Amino acid sequence: MAKLEEFCRKDGKQLRMGYTTGSCAAAAAKAAAGMLFEGNAISSVQLMTPKGILLELTVEDVTRGDGWVSCAIRKDSGDDPDITNGILIYVRVEFSDGEGIRLEGGQGVGRVTRPGLECPVGAPAINRVPREMITAAVSAMQQEAGVSAGVLVTISIPEGERLAQRTFNPRLGIVGGLSVLGTSGIVEPMSEAALVESIRAEMKILAAAGRRELIVTPGNYGEDFLKDLLGKPWPETVKCSNFVGETLDMAAELGFRKVLLIGHIGKFVKLAAGIMNTHSRYADGRMEILTAHAALCGADSKTASRLMECITTDDALDLLEQAGLREAVLKSVMKKIEFHLKARSHGDYEVGAVVFSNRHGLLGKTEGAETLFPSGEGGFLI
Questions:
Q1: Termini Cα distance of the chain
Q2: Torsion sign across C-alpha atoms 317, 321, 322, 323
């Protein structure tokens, strides 16, 4: 496998970049087309990515038949912890009766079943930029060889169906395999932009289905808490990870009218200080926020000092309970959370939050949060 020797810096570390499934498919299509049109063997292929980085990739597992050639490119994700690293992306190029270049998804490439994604319902999950890259690569080979006949290009990922169960695809309504992705052709390790785009994709599906009310949780804790309160799972929550601010911005962009955030106090207490990316590397401030609100509610200096020394928010809540301040502090915190959520939403939609902890259960909610729950089922919050 040819390794890409391009690097970026992340959190002070030098990390090797990789290339996307879209780049693999385009390179394999270029190689297969070249072998089909010229009849010669190709052991490596060059591909210019939209990012402007030239790839030279090893061609693997070449097979030929009457009027067709298939080959594969092995995915290299660089230092990104991507489950697709090392898998083979296959492309078969064959002459067809029709005109032009027709693109299809084979084994292990997912099919879109819900509206709202880049690809229409029923189409293979091959996004726009990879489609353009694949078509351009095959077209260039046609022109070079002087071939005008129509061709069918089929992308396959033998391990795709198995690996797709570990991705967002089942939540997005993409069944049967992986998506062929990539906007730059290059994988930048631990890309936050990619995470935000996956959140956007979930929200677009709900918006396309006519939903205008949105439940947002950072992750599994919020979903589990909601399930315990309702006595049943709520199937259409969106996981925002740490990207609360970006999710609120996208809610306005996509036309949602009500947004309810449900999260653990360990993350959501940060919202009371306007911290809209809750990852600890951007900001912590949990104890500073709780201590400030405790002081506003009458805590003495000894209690404030002990709060600042707490490691977890649950420990801080225990201390506030002992001081008889928990209810007042949480009420103060929720008011400030409401202030910052409304400031970020700019009045484009109604927004509120519910805060809980695994040890203490439901801790607080912003005013009117129960009215933001879809289908009028928010009575459990009253």
A1: 59
A2: positive
